[in-house]
Write a structure and sequence with these properties.
Layout: E1 4-11, H1 23-38, E2 47-51, H2 54-57, H3 63-70, E3 78-81, H4 85-97, E4 103-111, H5 117-120, H6 137-150, H7 156-169, E5 187-189, E6 192-193, E7 202-211, H8 212-218, E8 223-232, H9 246-255, E9 264-266, H10 272-281, E10 292-293, H11 308-321, E11 327-334, E12 340-347
Helix pairs in contact: 1-3, 4-11, 6-10, 7-10
Amino acid sequence: MRDVAIVAFGQSDHVRDSAETSEVEMLMPVLHDVLAQTGLAARDIDFTCSGSSDYLAGRAFSFTMALDGVGAWPPISESHVEMDGAWALYEAWVKLLTGEAETALVYAYGKSSPGEVRDVLTRQLDPYYLAPLWPDSVALAALQARALIDAGLTDERALAGIAARSRAAAASHPHAQLRGEVPAGELLVAPLRTGDCPPIGDGAAAVVLAAGDTARRLTDRPAWIRGLDHRIEAHSPGVRDLTDSPSTRLAAERAGAFTRPVDTAELHAPFTSQEVVLRRALRLDAPDSRVCINPSGGALAANPVMAAGLIRLGEAAARIQRGASDRALAHATSGPCLQHNLVAVLEGE
């Protein structure tokens, strides 16, 4: 396989409400940042791919407006996925593997503040049987948490510990929406408290990919993508075992995550209970494990919908680039209760 690496990563400040800033205005500083890190100009990018959701924006083909921030003239090779930006990175990675491009720009953004994101995410559900009942994302996550507690795999105290650890890790993060330890909070949907759930906020992120010697020329320490795979489970949460994630385990196996230990894991777990599931599926729960999990604070510190998964890959790559990690695992998810999962393995040279 052709060697492909993440050579630059940037993200916006994540805020509760960016009403005075458009998607383009939110994106442009991030795009300028990642290009400046590599010394590339927009004309040097062979392929551009984005991830976002029309449901958040409330209008069809909303991603075309964001292209104003990229610059689509002269004409560029461009694509879009109605998914988290992690899947846009997957498309760009495949493009570089085929030799059709040497460099790629991947970006994602989400503005959850204009509407009720818990209601918006019900549109992911089966439109005939489940969506008409309007079970929102927090209610479904609470079902998963209850299943874990009933199975003896965690308890409310352990979940509170995950929240405290994650948000304490974000204390020094310049872009996090929530910094430092926070109280467990009031019950939101039992057994989940407000501290077990992600903040609602707006944000954007971008990465630059490059192949082979081009990657080595653009950065001193590329974060090489050694494996990348994504798998999906049954659409209905009612026919799945919510205490396990076979799709995450299979994606990790196909990405080569189990061949050698990793020292860092950036997990896209918007709810504390989901981290429990992911740690078990990814074999990160060993008593002697020294893996640093979500040193950025993860989605519990900042969760811009449609960008949070791409941020997990970017954060893992950034740690490799600055020498804080040698082999990292990054995970992204989409859909209710960890329905669709992507796993990447990144290494330094």
